[in-house]
Design goal:
The complex is a heterodimer of chains A (117) and B (106). Chain A is mostly beta strands. Helix content of chain A is 0%, strand content 48%. In chain A, strands 2, 4, 5, 6, 9, 10 and 11 form a seven-stranded mixed β-sheet that branches. Chain A is globular and about 40 Å long. The mean pLDDT of chain A is 93. With 106 residues, chain B is mainly β. In chain B, the strands form two sheets. In chain B, strands 2, 4, 5, 9, 10 and 11 form a six-stranded mixed β-sheet that branches. A five-stranded antiparallel β-sheet of chain B has the order 1-3-8-7-6, with no helix packed on it. The chains are: A mainly beta (117), B mainly beta (106). At the A-B interface, strand 5 and strand 10 of A face strand 4, strand 5, strand 9 and strand 10 of B.
Chain lengths: 117, 106
Amino acid sequence: EAGVTQFPSHSVIEKGQTVTLRCDPISGHDNLYWYRRVMGKEIKFLLHFVKESKQDESGMPNNRFLAERTGGTYSTLKVQPAELEDSGVYFCASSQGDYTPDQETQYFGPGTRLLVL
Amino acid sequence: KNEVEQSPQNLTAQEGEFITINCSYSVGISALHWLQQHPGGGIVSLFMLSSGKKKHGRLIATINIQEKHSSLHITASHPRDSAVYICAVSGSRLTFGEGTQLTVNP
C-alpha cells in the first residue's frame, strides 16, 4: 500500500509568487494534517482536516495560506503571495480516523522543501 | 520555553553504545510519540505510548506521566540508527520537540 505522498519534493520561488503544495494521504484515511518546520525550529501544526472539513486551522500563520481538501481525498496548501519567512519543510500526515485523532498514529509524507528567495 | 523539551540536542556515540534521549513536556497529553527522521527522508512513527513502556527491536520507549517525562533508549546502537529523533505529544494536536540529532560512528 502506498504511503503518504507529497508533491513537489522541492520548490524554489521568488517572493511574491504563488506556490501550491499537494498531499495524497493513505487511501481511506479520514484525518489529514499539515505541518511546517522552519529551519532551526521545531515542527509546528498548521491544520487538520477530517474528510473534507477543516477540523482545526488555528495553526495557519496568516491569510496568505489556503488549504483545501475537496472530496476528502488529496489536499492542497497554497501560499499566495509567498514571503521569505515561509521557507521551510512542509509535511503532510494522515491517520485512519477509527479512534479519536489524539490516540492514532500519524503517517507522514516525505515533505516539500520550500525556499522563497 | 517550548512545551516539549528534548535533550540532548546533539548526540554522538560509538557503535554498540547504549543511547538515551529524553523528553519533558509541560502540558496535559493524551499520548506521547517518538518519531524518526533520516537525512533527506520523511518522518516515521516509532512509538505511541500513554503509559509504561514499549519495546520494538533495539528500541525502548518509556513514559512517566506523573513526572511528564519520557525516554527513548537504543541498545547496541548501529550507524544506521543515525537520524533525528523527535518527541511529540498529542492533545488537541501534535506538539513537537526540536529533535535530537543522533550520529552513531562505526
